[in-house]
Amino acid sequence: MQTSVARLFAHILNFFVNSLKWYKDSRAVHALKSLLQPWDLKFRQDYEAIASEAQHIRRLADVAMRAEVRSTRLEVEQGTRHLELVKQEINKLRIENQKLQDFFKSRFDNMEISMLGKCSAFGRLR
User: Fold this and answer.
1) If DSSP states are collapsed to H, E and C, what string results for the chain?
2) Span 82-114, pLDDT tens digits
3) Its pTM surpasses 0.70
4) Which residues of 3-31 are buried (b: 16+ CB within 10 A; e: fewer)?
5) Which end of the chain has the lower number of beta carbons within 10 A, N or C?
6) Which long-range contacts (CB under 8 A, 24 or more apart) does 34-42 make?
7) At residue 89, what are phi and psi to the nearest 5 degrees?
């Protein structure tokens, strides 16, 4: 890509040099050259080289963009799969957490009932 851009700039600079040479000529020379050496013969080669190099750069940029889009798509797919795994793990942890809460609640409820029974029996003994 860098080589193509460098070639494009070289062609543009060459066009500018030729344009500057043409600009420095007098009106009489411009009139004579317009008959003997029209624009097509003088500048067509530079124009086509610039257009060709610009088209080549567009194709390279298009290929690079497609590769980047594909890479981004693959990263998004991988991230989506990872997110699904995380969601599954969170659901498993929620279920396990609920089981632990239920277990401790039943244990503490049993302990509370047992302690209330002992406290009321202790109060009757006094």
Assistant:
1) CHHHHHHHHHHHHHHHHHHHHHHHCCHHHHHHHHHHCCHHHHHHHHHHHHHHHHHHHHHHHHHHHHHHHHHHHHHHHHHHHHHHHHHHHHHHHHHHHHHHHHHHHHHHHHHHHHHHHHHHHHHHHC
2) 999 999 999 999 999 999 999 988 888 877 777
3) no
4) ebeebbeebeeebeeeeeeeeeeeeeeee
5) C
6) 42/18
7) -65, -40
Q: Percent of the chain beyond pLDDT 90?
A: 54
Task: Return the amino acid letter for 16.
Answer: F
* Dihedral sign from CA coordinates of 38, 45, 52, 17: negative
Residue that has been written with the tokens 């799969």 in this structure: 81
Beta carbons within 8 Å of 1's beta carbon, 6+ residues apart: 57, 60, 61, 64
Contacts of residue 102, Cβ cutoff 8 Å, sequence gap at least 6: none
